[in-house]
Write a structure and sequence with these properties.
3-hydroxybutyrate dehydrogenase; Rossmann fold; single chain
């Protein structure tokens, strides 16, 4: 099967790409920077895996159309994400819009472009990478939380619309994952809260989590591949939460 992963050069995205490739799928790594895409594709090919790459801007309609025309994917993983931490009154409006476009509108429009071919073939798997912040909120993350909450609703609606075919749409929602994106958040939150970075990790990020641990990218990748297995063929419109017990409180 052909699998396209947006944000495929990042920590979570590349872990997902590597896991699908290891299971014998043809992986398409999609991201904004050609050099990064080429590097990650080469890494997979050197390991004997099937991999291709494409420069894709999920906020650009022409870029999405070009991608859909080039690849008729069986599995779409909407993973591309960005973050900005600030009080709402200090949040640049253009940055707020950018987060919504990348993490909500982008997945919607890319799914829209890929679904007709999936429906024609009577098979498709769409996996949206959400966040614990699709379920709970944190201060200074209004755009991110809004986008991820919206992604859950979007996923459920599209799953219902395509339930007449062998197409499933689900959302994976991990708690904090130690990626470069989160590393930058630690520094930003330390500034906003007037704390040390270690205090941010202990008092903010891991404090609500009973297991007190970051989620591993391998856990997310394993969940993604499970959702594409025959054992998960009737799992759709669901939210799979990897949160170490956070939302049980």
């Amino acid at each position: 099967m052909q699998v396209l992963i947006t944000g495929g050069t990042g920590g979570i995205g590349f872990a997902i790409a590597r896991q699908f490739a290891a299971e014998g799928h043809n992986v398409v790594i999609a991201d904004l920077q050609q050099d990064a895409v080429d590097s990650k594709v080469q890494q997979l090919r050197q390991q004997g895996y099937q991999a291709e790459g494409i420069v894709l801007d999920v906020t650009d309609a022409a870029s999405i159309t070009s991608c859909a025309n080039r690849f008729q994917v069986d599995i779409l993983v909407n993973n591309a994400g960005i973050q900005h931490v600030a009080r709402l009154e200090d949040f640049p409006p253009e940055k707020w819009a950018q987060l919504i476009n990348v993490m909500l509108t982008g997945p919607a429009m890319l799914s829209r472009a890929m679904l007709p071919a999936m429906r024609k073939r009577n098979f498709g798997r769409i996996i949206n990478i959400g966040s614990i912040h699709a379920l709970v909120a944190s201060p200074f993350k209004s755009a991110y939380v809004a986008a991820k909450h919206g992604l859950l609703g979007f996923s459920k609606v599209v799953a219902l619309e395509n339930a007449d075919k062998d197409i499933t749409i689900n959302t994976i929602c991990p708690a904090y994952v130690k990626t470069p994106l989160v590393e930058r958040q630690i520094a930003d939150q330390a500034k906003e809260h007037n704390l040390t970075e270690q205090q941010v990790v202990e008092q903010i990020m891991l404090a609500p989590m009973p297991q007190k641990a970051f989620i591993g990218v391998d856990e997310i990748a394993g969940t993604a591949t499970f959702l594409c297995s025959s054992a998960a063929r009737h799992i759709t419109a669901q939210t799979l939460v990897l949160d170490g017990g956070w939302t049980a409180r």
